[in-house]
Amino acid sequence: MSELAQFHFLRPAWLLLIPVAVAICWSLTRARSLDRVWRGVMAPHLLDHLIVRHGARSRGPTPVTLMGLAWLVAIVAVAGPVWQRQPSPFSQDQAALVIALKVTPEMLSTDVQPSRLQRSVQKIHDLLEARTGARTALIAYACSAHLVMPLTSDPDIIETFAADLTPDIMPVAGDAAAGAVALGNRLLEQSGAVGSILLITDAIASDQLDGLREARSE
Predict the structure, then answer these.
(1) Whole-angstrom Cα distance, residue 210 to residue 178?
(2) How far is 20 from 13, CA to CA, in rounded Å?
(3) What does the buried/exposed string (b/e) look like for 70-83 if buried means 16 or more CB atoms within 10 Å of the residue's CB?
(4) How confident is the model at residue 218 (pLDDT cuts 50, 70, 90)?
(5) CA-CA distance, 14 to 18, in Å (whole number)?
(6) Is the C-alpha dihedral spanning 158, 164, 166, 172 positive or negative?
(7) Rg of the chain on CA atoms, in Å
(8) Where are the beta strands (DSSP E) in 103-188?
(9) pTM
């Protein structure tokens, strides 16, 4: 019973085509009906004697029936029936994660609503929600990188500090992406945790690329 309860469709919207397919097959069946074709041009008492009824027809399925069954199978297949729900790629990820967030005036741009920085905070919220129980740290960087919150399994603290970050609290504007990643590497190494570093930024200065490659190779 538990497996039956987990049965679902990955793309259930495709099932909406089933009534459409049924309607088309019904219309085609009516159009092929000799009774319907000749009833308007021939007297009913003559029509009964001239048309062969269903009892005398072949017992095999009609082409319309076969087409309808093929459509039904195709629609169900495209809808993606599965017996087990696929877990979120983050739901089983208990490895540590260090989020390095760029906090500069450029991140206040509203080309991405409500702003690049606020949208980044929203994405952090979604990520933390999917990583329930996993440890996360937060780094803010501009011209220099600063540890905002060390590794913690409390997502509310990370969200609170991330929402309060503004370019005004950073010492100097700039881009220290390589420094943020290096700080994240040191944090993971000191904690003895196995994890990843997520860099959230709108752009990376060209002078940071060599430092990022070096930090990645560590």
Answers:
(1) 8
(2) 13
(3) ebeeebeeebeeee
(4) low
(5) 8
(6) negative
(7) 32
(8) 136-141, 145-152
(9) 0.57
Q: 114 with 56: CB under 8 angstroms?
A: no
Q: What is the pLDDT of residues 99-145, one digit of tens each?
A: 999 999 999 999 989 999 999 999 999 999 988 888 999 999 999 99
Is residue 80 left, alpha or beta, with left meaning phi > 0 and alpha meaning psi from -120 to 50?
left
Q: What values do phi and psi take at 141, rounded to 5?
A: -145, 150
Nearest to 160 by CA among 128, 114, 206, 182: 128
Which residue(s) pair with 152 in the sheet? 136
Residue showing tokens 């929203």: 122
User: Is the backbone of residue 14 left (phi > 0), alpha (psi -120 to 50) or beta?
Assistant: alpha
Contacts of 130 (CB under 8 A, 6+ apart): 88, 90, 91
Q: Are 75 and 14 in contact (CB under 8 A)?
A: yes
Q: Which residues contact residue 104 at a Cβ distance below 8 angstroms, ignoring those fewer than 6 apart?
A: 142, 167, 170, 173, 174, 175
Taking the C-alpha atoms of residue 20 and residue 18, their distance in angstroms, rounded to an integer, is: 5
Q: 146: closest CA among 83, 194, 103, 206?
A: 103
